Amino acid sequence: MRMILNTAHVYMILGVVSGLYYRELTKANDFTGETQLSTVHTHLLALGMVFFLIVLALEKLFALTSHRLFRWFFWIYNAGLTVTVGMMTLHGTLTVLGHESGAAIAGIAGLGHILLTAGLILLFITLTKLIPAKSKADQPSAP
């Protein structure tokens, strides 16, 4: 459980710092246009901190870490979020500095999204294995 809490905490710090980076970089360069930097902090706070706080609650209820797929979910999801946010930061920084980002950055960001999706699939498989299905005895009978 401590690992999940620490992960949420790290994403909270990164989310706050990325918001500061966005504000200061755009101010220093007198940039007023659209940039992906404006959503990096939101991605880190929502897909990082809030998401892992929810996973922490699910761990408390269903002992997610006891299942063999949990570690796979944890590392794949974190890799996906790191790659995605890293590419958003790079693309946004290049935009503010007046440079083109190119197709490679978009392609790598796409790989980050694929990893995020794979991580989410693993989480749902883990949840499906750990949350028992309702038995027929638990279901209400028809009138």
UniProtKB/TrEMBL annotation:
Residues that span the membrane, as ranges: 7-23, 43-62, 74-97, 103-127
Top-level taxon in the UniProt lineage: Bacteria
Record has Ubl conjugation as a keyword: no
Swiss-Prot/TrEMBL keywords: Membrane, Transmembrane, Transmembrane helix
Protein name per Swiss-Prot or TrEMBL: DUF2871 domain-containing protein
